[in-house]
Specification:
Blueprint (H helix, E strand, L loop, with lengths): L1 H6 L5 E2 L2 E3 L2 E9 L2 E6 L4 E5 L9 E4 L2 E5 L4
Antiparallel strand pairs: 1-3, 2-3, 3-4, 4-5, 5-7, 6-7
Length: about 70
C-alpha cells in the first residue's frame, strides 16, 4: 500500500484495486493524504507521513484508519 501511495500522482484516482488481501473501491489523494477506501464499508485507510488527519485512529507509522457511520 505504501508503494501505491508514494507513486500515485496527485491528479490520479485509481478504481477498484486489490492490494494484498484488501480490496479498495478507490485510492486517491485528499489534500496531503492518500485515501484507500474499502469496498462495501464505511472505513478507509489513510497514508499521511507528515501529520495525523483529523478524526482518525493511528494504526502504525504514517497509517491511520477512519470509520464513518452513515447513521
Amino acid at each position: 500500500m505504501e508503494a501505491v501511495a508514494r507513486t500515485l500522482r496527485r491528479d490520479e484516482v485509481l478504481g477498484r484495486q486489490t492490494i494484498g488481501v484488501l480490496t479498495f473501491d478507490t485510492v486517491y489523494w485528499d489534500g496531503d493524504t492518500v485515501v484507500f477506501a474499502l469496498s462495501n464499508s464505511h472505513r478507509a485507510y489513510i497514508w499521511s507521513p507528515d501529520r495525523r488527519p483529523g478524526d482518525t485512529s493511528r494504526l502504525w507509522g504514517p497509517w491511520y484508519t477512519l470509520w464513518s457511520d452513515p447513521h
